């Protein structure tokens, strides 16, 4: 029987409907199969499945679940040192760079020389997620304190007016 006059059916009360996309990935021109099951015994359906076409699944936003943190108390040691601890993300992969508009990579950026570094990071979204906006933090590598000790052997004593001996600094 067809719905007549002012009759109407209420979703959940008189029928249920489930939709399944043929391909759940984000994109345009998607097709979905809708299955309708009547709960109201006063009506019948010509078909219980319907195809909807031309649908769009929009990308969700990726998210930082734990932001990377600056490594504390770095001091120059002549070696490359990790500047941050890794962050975590959902919907993509955390990537890093030492240049805002430079090349980003999954590897943690490092610094060798004493000074200040700006580390940029964002979540590079997967096929179903948008990228996040880059964020930056400043990380410092402190100068190493130099200790200089000059030891002169008794044979190398100097007297007023003598030229000072050459000294090699080793750190």
Question: What key attributes describe this structure?
Answer:
15 strands; four-stranded mixed beta sheet; mainly beta; 171 residues; single chain
Write the layout of secondary structure elements.
Elements: E1 15-21, E2 27-38, E3 49-57, E4 60-61, E5 63-66, E6 69-70, E7 74-75, E8 81-82, E9 84-85, E10 88-90, E11 92-97, E12 110-111, E13 115-125, E14 129-130, E15 135-142
Parallel strand pairs: 4-14, 7-15
Antiparallel strand pairs: 1-2, 2-3, 5-10, 6-9, 8-12, 11-13, 13-15
Verbal overview:
The protein has 171 residues and is mainly β. It has strands spanning 15-21, 27-38, 49-57, 60-61, 63-66, 69-70, 74-75, 81-82, 84-85, 88-90, 92-97, 110-111, 115-125, 129-130, 135-142. The strands form 6 sheets. It has a 4-stranded mixed sheet, with no helix packed on it. It starts with 14 loop residues before the first strand and ends in a 29-residue tail after the last strand.
- Assign a percent range to the helix content: under 10%
Query: Which series of helices and strands comes N to C?
Result: EEEEEEEEEEEEEEE
Distance between the termini: 94 Å
What is the number of E strands?
15
Cα gyration radius (Å): 34 Å
Strand order of the largest sheet: 7-15-13-11
Tell me what portion of residues adopts beta-strand conformation: 35-45%
Instruction: Outline the low-pLDDT stretches.
Output: none
Oligomer: single chain
**Main structural class:** mainly beta
For the report, how would you describe the main beta sheet? 4 strands, mixed
Mean pLDDT: 88
């Amino acid at each position: 029987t067809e719905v007549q006059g002012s009759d109407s059916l209420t979703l959940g009360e008189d029928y249920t409907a489930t939709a399944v996309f043929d391909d759940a990935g984000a994109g345009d021109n998607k097709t979905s199969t809708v299955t309708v099951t009547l709960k109201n015994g006063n009506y019948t359906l010509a078909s219980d499945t319907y195809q909807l076409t031309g649908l769009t699944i929009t990308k969700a936003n990726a998210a930082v679940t734990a932001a990377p943190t600056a490594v504390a108390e770095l001091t120059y040691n002549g070696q490359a040192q990790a500047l941050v601890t890794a962050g975590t993300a959902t919907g993509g992969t955390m990537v890093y760079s030492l240049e805002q508009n430079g090349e980003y990579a999954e590897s943690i950026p490092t610094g060798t020389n004493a000074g200040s570094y700006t580390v940029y990071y964002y979540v590079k979204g997967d096929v179903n997620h948008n990228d996040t906006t880059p964020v930056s933090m400043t990380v410092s590598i402190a100068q190493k304190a130099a200790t200089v000790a000059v030891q002169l052997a008794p044979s190398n004593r100097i007297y007023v007016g003598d030229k000072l001996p050459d000294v090699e600094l080793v750190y």
